[in-house]
Amino acid sequence: MTNEIMLSKLGFISIFPEMVSAITDWGVTGRAVRDGRCSIEVIDPREFATDKHGTVDDRPYGGGPGMVMTAPIMTAAVESAKNLLGDRAPVIAMSPQGQVVDERLLTTLLQQDSLIFVAGRYEGFDERFVSRSVDIELSVGDIVVSGGEIPAMLVMDSLIRRIPGVLGDELSAEQDSFVDGLLDCPHYTRPEIFEGEAVPSVLLSGDHARIADWRAAQSLKRTLERRPDLISEFDLSDEQRSLLARWEMQ
Ligand code: SAH
User: Fold this and answer.
1) How many structural domains are present in the chain?
2) 56 and 132, same structural domain?
3) Is the pTM of this model over 0.90?
4) Which of 79, 111, 118, 167 could form a disulfide with 13 if both were Cys (CB 3.0 to 4.6 A apart)?
5) Does residue 176 have an active-site annotation?
6) Is the predicted pLDDT of residue 169 greater than 80, yes or no?
7) Which domain covers residue 196, as residue numbers?
8) CB 130 near ligand 1, within 6 Å
9) CA of 186 to the centre of ligand 1 (A)
């Protein structure tokens, strides 16, 4: 299986469509959209409401607090997104009950041409919309926030920055945490001494091979210390073991 990145079109279904400006108007993701490396179609479910108030939700059967986003309206919003982005575009509904997003899942999503993100509000969606129209339910972690917009944009941002050409320096995405299964190494910039603390001398040595070794050892060390779940000591290659040992002695 190739890991080729195909993604260039995103759909964002939300009753607060203006929120998308958090990614379209700022920084790396904003530039990606302006340069046409990715496009974002924004769909407001209120367009499919049948009353003049633009109602998209209704009271839950069985009673209880909160409102539920209705199946007919959310289905119409997804159909409209598919008209714009293609029938095969996977539909991703944001939900605290979904699979928790991680790098492995992002890599699979990047292989699609288009993806449609659906942000919930209130108590979430009518379950029949989820079972009939949603391919993946995605969570950003074991917390509940008040709407799916920020979770969806968190994932969209993370996908967009992996599209080739989006990050100025092609290498920087590959060096980020998780991309190679490890946490990133620590970074330093000027001044050389800050409140008495100096930059590790190896970084000033100009010896690129040593610097690369040091960074690889730091990455490993941090991952073992902070996120041992990402790596089992048994997975370490002989080369990685000796790198760690070498830098630990210094
Ligand atoms: N009653 C729901 C929570 C609704 S929160 C439940 O307990 O499962 C309202 C919306 O916010 C959800 O429909 C979802 O789109 C979004 N949301 C909340 N927490 C989220 C999380 N951890 N990950 C992704 N989306 C989340």
Assistant:
1) 2
2) yes
3) yes
4) 118
5) yes
6) no
7) 180-248
8) no
9) 33
Does residue 45 have a cis bond before it (omega within 30 degrees)? no
CB–CB of 38/7 below 8 Å? yes
45 lines ligand 1 (CB under 6 A): no
- 33 lies in the same domain as 144: yes
d(CA 110, CA 105): 9
What's the DSSP call for residue 21? H
Pocket test for ligand 1, best of 13, 70, 78, 95 (most atoms within 8 A of CB): 95
Tens digit of each residue's pLDDT (9 = 90 or more) over 123-143: 999 999 999 999 999 999 999
Instruction: Write the CA distances from 231 to 33, 97, 172, 244, integer angstroms.
Output: 35, 26, 22, 14
Instruction: Give the residue from 185, 197, 188 showing the smallest Cα distance to 226.
Output: 185
Reported as a single tens digit per residue, the pLDDT across 51-108 is: 999 999 999 999 999 999 999 999 999 999 999 999 999 999 999 999 999 999 999 9
Q: Is residue 167 part of a domain?
A: no
Residue whose pair of structure tokens reads 């941090």 in the numeric block:
222
Has 59 been annotated as catalytic? no
CA 91-137-114 angle, to 5 degrees, is 25
CATH code of 209's domain: 1.10.1270.20
DSSP 163: S
Encode pLDDT of 202-226 as tens digits.
Answer: 999 999 999 999 999 999 999 999 9
Cβ–ligand 1 distance for 209 under 6 Å, the answer no
